[in-house]
């Protein structure tokens, strides 16, 4: 499949204005965080999206600390894309946290951060416990576009020539670690089809209602993240929505190469 996938329509980009409201909703729900599945103390790295930095992931990292994990930002400043410094930095980060944890670490990646997370798991599966992506354009290749295309093109001269995406993830070998892709059909930055993974016994897609820029604050995404992280190591099972929360999780899609837009 080599046809280019276009950016979402303009009206979906306008809906990204929901993100601040999702942040407010996360704050309002904070008294209920005690109801989230409790952590086992393992280490979790959270990688920001394109042009964002650790400030964007701080609310999620603080929540993860509160429910029992050791969370880590990336300390690499703004995510300007796959520069040599960033690619070297995230590799060093995983090695450092793995050594500190004395065991595999989970990685959460928001948007472009999820692409990094998957590549880290591909390169060093023994260091990674699981990968959770938030609105990440997993299937995106060079000729596809997003609503951030203008900024990406302006910064492309900074990007490492080694980080080329010429083959959709569906045609690459499966990751050796469990993977969860959390996405929204009204994502205004990347086409939602690009966020779907091939569904296997160790990979899944979870659909939520919300914006791209608010996924790190989205209460449904947060519950799914907490549920995924709380699973025992080496005993991963697909997400099962509690009956009381089913209205917040519309039916997820399966990746189908023949139905890409």
How would you describe the overall organization of this protein?
The chain has 261 residues and is of the alpha/beta class. The protein has helices at residues 10-14, 19-28, 54-66, 84-101, 112-123, 149-155, 219-229; strands at residues 43-47, 70-72, 105-110, 128-134, 179-183, 203-207. The chain has one domain: Alpha/Beta hydrolase fold, catalytic domain (Rossmann fold, 3-Layer(aba) Sandwich), CATH 3.40.50. It is built from 7 helices and 6 strands. The chain is globular and about 45 Å long. The protein starts with 9 loop residues before the first helix and ends in a 32-residue tail after the last helix. The relative contact order is 0.18.
Question: Which CATH top level class fits?
Answer: Alpha Beta
Poorly predicted ranges: none
Overall 3D form: globular
CATH topology: Rossmann fold
CATH superfamily annotation: Alpha/Beta hydrolase fold, catalytic domain
Radius of gyration over alpha carbons?
17 Å
Count of distinct structural domains: 1
Binned strand content: 5-15%
Helical run tally: 7
